[in-house]
């Protein structure tokens, strides 16, 4: 494997594992994961235990070869680094920096001056020994190519010290530290923290693993010192000295996966396609996901420069997460995924991989599209990322989306026009519209679901059937792009008392109620603009909401202070619903009275 990266292993205190037992353990762990092991990998594992005891002659610490970039270049470097780091986090799991154990710092400070840690103390305090160790490692490395660095214990400190002193043409395609004491102040060289304020430009990513019972790691990661890298918590099930041993860390699947990816690249991460003799049919959750992603991709094409870079980075993670969740849900339900979904799979860990675009969305009837388009115009399709973009570009993307769906671009223009009209109604018709925060319905929807114990969702199936909503939320939760759209969409289309009770609840803010009411009103305005029949459920729900809010106000008003926050919130809710109902009356959308209504 001449083109494979070199593996550089930096040991901690002691004899440097003269038998290289760490190599056998890591190789077995890699094979277990499906990699080829270390037989074909060039391994550099310099032994510097003797060098840590004393210097043969005085010499200077090697100069920094990797310079800090200029301010603008540093910004771009940081962004690229974070994009690669996010891909690693997506592959390995959630970052966990941990919290320091009580008295752990005291324990480590005391340990540093004991005989077993004398070698570490020498490296940290004696410049000639530090220089000797670094030069011995540099002499063992080539002048160019790629290297993966694995540093254990003191070796992690040396790795951090080494990375900006490497040959300029030697790229670090991954750095993994294990059992690191770097979070403790006693394990910093004189300039290490200041020299690594930003990620070095020669470093692709850095992940640190800390073992729960490992006292040297102090029950915390390294990101408390270097916040641009990430930590992962593992538990090897060992205690005392074995909990700190390199072999325990390297036998762990997560650690081996990180090293394996750096050395060999990605194992297959495609969305699993369940074999079936028939093409799987899109269910409502999948259909909504494809349309939302298509909308986001249409927006992406309108952006340039910094905005585009950030939006594409967010969209890559959102699309990968959505595909992963849909695949997991399909496996749980023992059904296949449609090819229109599986074709969007890509390797998020490969920052150079193409981001597949959804095909133009299938045709929808105008009546069926009202709720979905109203929702997309108001919600954040790259949630949980928040990127403020020009509204006119979202308008143009919506017009393109509705045009390719056979609804006409005028339909897309009317979507935003209806939303603007609804917001103006709720703000009292002033010249300056106090725009309701973009995406607030998603956050408010989750709050309503919690406040009602799910009654709001039970009240109506929303944009998808009740079974689909239930299974999708079990996979995605009410947050994220898919869960957020489904939850908000359910509240936009639900009927019955559950939604009214949830909106009136003290656990639901006035801002969240305004968001739901505004979307309800906007959908009715859109229907009228497009010459569609009104939805009678809108009037019914809003009048129920008004009754519930007034009932809650009367209950609290009797004994509460007039200026209490709860009373003010309820008054704001009443005003919002009254304005919405008054506007529907003005548009002639109040249902005709039926005998027995009075």
Task: Tell me the layout of helices and strands.
Elements: E1 6-10, H1 21-33, E2 43-44, H2 49-53, H3 71-92, H4 104-112, H5 118-125, H6 127-139, E3 144-152, H7 154-162, E4 169-178, H8 192-195, E5 206-211, E6 230-234, H9 241-244, H10 246-250, H11 253-264, H12 284-300, H13 305-332, H14 339-342, H15 366-378, H16 391-404, H17 409-426, H18 440-451, H19 455-458, H20 466-476, H21 480-493, H22 497-504, H23 510-529, H24 536-557, H25 565-586
Parallel strand pairs: 1-2, 1-3, 3-4, 4-5, 5-6
Helix pairs in contact: 1-11, 3-13, 5-6, 12-13, 12-16, 13-20, 15-17, 15-21, 15-23, 16-17, 17-23, 18-21, 18-23, 20-21, 21-23, 22-24, 23-25, 24-25
Q: Please, could you describe this protein's structure?
A:
This protein has 598 residues and is an alpha/beta fold. It folds into 2 domains: 225 residues, Rossmann fold; 303 residues, no CATH class. Helix content is 52%, strand content 6%. It has 25 helices and 6 strands. Strands 2-1-3-4-5-6 form a 6-stranded parallel β-sheet, sandwiched between helices. Helix 7 links the parallel strand 3 and strand 4. Helix 12 packs antiparallel against helix 13 and helix 22 packs across helix 24. The relative contact order is 0.08.
Short summary of the structure?
The protein has 598 residues and is α/β, with parallel strands linked by helices.
DSSP summary, beta strand count:
6
What's the shape? elongated
User: Biggest β-sheet, characterized?
Assistant: 6 strands, parallel
Question: What's the helix count?
Answer: 25
Which bin fits the share of residues in helices? Answer: 40-55%
Q: What structural class should be given to the helix and strand makeup?
A: alpha/beta
Tell me the domain tally: 2
* Average pLDDT: 83
- Work out the radius of gyration: 30 Å
Strand fraction equals 5-15%
For the largest sheet, list the strands in their spatial order. 2-1-3-4-5-6
Gap between N and C termini, in Å?
A: 85 Å
Low-confidence stretches: 269-278, 431-438
């Amino acid at each position: 494997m001449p083109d494979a990266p070199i593996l550089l292993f930096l040991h901690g205190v002691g004899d440097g594992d003269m038998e290289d037992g760490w190599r056998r353990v890591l190789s077995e762990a890699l094979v277990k994961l499906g990699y080829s092991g270390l037989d074909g990998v060039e391994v550099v594992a310099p032994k510097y235990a003797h060098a840590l005891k004393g210097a043969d002659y005085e010499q200077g610490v090697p100069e920094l070869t990797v310079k800090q970039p200029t301010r603008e270049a540093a910004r771009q470097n940081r962004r690229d680094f974070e994009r690669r780091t996010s891909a690693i986090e997506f592959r390995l799991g959630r970052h966990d920096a941990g919290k320091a154990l009580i008295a752990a710092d005291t324990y480590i400070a005391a340990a540093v001056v004991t005989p077993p840690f004398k070698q570490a103390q020498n490296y940290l305090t004696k410049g000639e020994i530090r220089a000797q160790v670094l030069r011995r490692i540099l002499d063992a490395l080539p002048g160019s190519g790629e290297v993966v660095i694995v540093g254990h214990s003191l070796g992690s400190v040396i790795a951090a010290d080494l990375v900006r002193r490497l040959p300029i043409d030697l790229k670090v395609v991954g750095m993994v530290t294990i059992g690191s004491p770097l979070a403790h102040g006693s394990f910093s060289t004189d300039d290490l923290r200041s020299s690594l304020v930003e990620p070095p430009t020669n470093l692709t990513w850095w992940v640190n693993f800390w073992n729960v019972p490992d006292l040297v790691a102090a029950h915390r990661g390294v990101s408390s010192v270097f916040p641009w890298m990430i930590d992962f918590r593992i538990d090897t099930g060992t205690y005392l000295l074995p909990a700190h041993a390199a072999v325990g860390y390297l036998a762990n699947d997560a650690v081996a996966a990180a090293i394996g990816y750096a050395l060999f690249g990605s194992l297959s991460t495609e969305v699993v396609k369940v074999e079936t003799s028939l093409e799987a049919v899109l269910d409502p959750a999948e259909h909504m996901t494809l349309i939302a992603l298509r909308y986001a991709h249409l927006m992406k094409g309108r952006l340039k420069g910094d905005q585009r870079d950030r939006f594409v980075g967010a969209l890559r993670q959102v699309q990968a997460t959505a595909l992963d969740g849909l695949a997991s849900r399909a496996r749980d339900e023992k059904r296949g995924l449609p090819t229109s979904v599986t074709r969007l799979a890509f390797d998020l860990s490969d920052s150079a991989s193409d981001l597949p675009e959804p095909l133009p969305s299938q045709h929808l009837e105008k009546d069926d599209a009202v709720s979905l388009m109203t929702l997309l115009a108001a919600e954040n399709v790259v949630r949980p990322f928040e990127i403020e973009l020009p509204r006119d570009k979202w308008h143009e993307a919506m017009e393109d989306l509705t045009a390719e769906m056979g609804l006409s671009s005028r339909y897309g223009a009317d979507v935003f026009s209806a939303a603007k009209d609804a917001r103006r109604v709720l703000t009292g018709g002033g010249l300056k519209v106090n725009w309701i925060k973009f995406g607030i319905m998603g956050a408010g929807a989750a709050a309503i679901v919690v406040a009602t114990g799910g009654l709001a969702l039970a009240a109506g199936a929303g944009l998808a059937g009740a079974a689909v909503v239930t299974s999708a939320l079990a996979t995605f939760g009410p947050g994220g792009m898919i869960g957020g759209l489904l939850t908000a969409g359910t509240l936009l289309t639900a009927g019955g008392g559950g939604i009214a009770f949830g909106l009136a609840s003290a656990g639901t803010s006035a801002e969240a109620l305004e968001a739901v009411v505004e979307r309800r009103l906007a959908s009715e305005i859109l229907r009228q603009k497009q010459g569609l029949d009104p939805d009678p459920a809108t009037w019914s729900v809003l009048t129920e909401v008004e009754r519930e809010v007034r009932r809650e106000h009367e209950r609290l008003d009797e004994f509460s202070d007039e200026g209490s926050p709860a009373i003010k919130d309820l008054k704001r809710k009443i005003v919002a619903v009254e304005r919405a109902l008054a506007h529907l009356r003005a548009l002639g959308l109040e249902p005709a009275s039926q005998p027995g209504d009075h």
